[in-house]
Amino acid sequence: MLDENEIIWIPNNNYFPRRNGYSPRYVIIHGTAGFTSAKAVAHFFKSTEGGNNPVSTHYIIGLDGELVKCIDEEQGAFGNGYVSGIPGTSGDSIHHDPWWSRAINPNYLTLSIEHVKLSKDNSDELTERQKHASFRLIRAICERHNIPKRKADAEGGITGHFSMDPINRHFCPGPYPWEELFAFLASSTL
Ligand SMILES: [Zn+2]
Q1: Which domain covers residue 121, as residue numbers?
Q2: Average pLDDT, the chain
């Protein structure tokens, strides 16, 4: 199981209180496209408080597996602000998955996890430690919120930022071991 004592808390105020009444249904995977540590990303989020473009995610996972939390899960983070493109099947830099709507802020419906990647284009693979921390965190989140432990569909699940913002975030998260994640979630207890 995920040991909650492993989590480092570096909070910021960039969130939608109580998700405006919605419940989370999706886990969204991101890559940082730069930065060298989870703590550095958390301090960056905090530095954007009150600015023109405040940003945040619930969690950040470092290359060493370090797990930093910035936003409580019951709040909506500022990680998934914009639905771009046209409805269809995501993954082609044109279409967003059909269940996203510009009428509902996707941050109300999502929990977001950043993964530190050194490359500006997010082309790096996760490290083994990062992958292990990511899989365990996702499983814990899904179980806490009854989010389906599978690739996202209209009922909920897990996907990347590209799913809702194919125009600006087609490279987010970049490489992620999706098949390995879903196999892990199906077999459980590691
Ligand atoms: Zn992203």
Answers
A1: 4-187
A2: 96
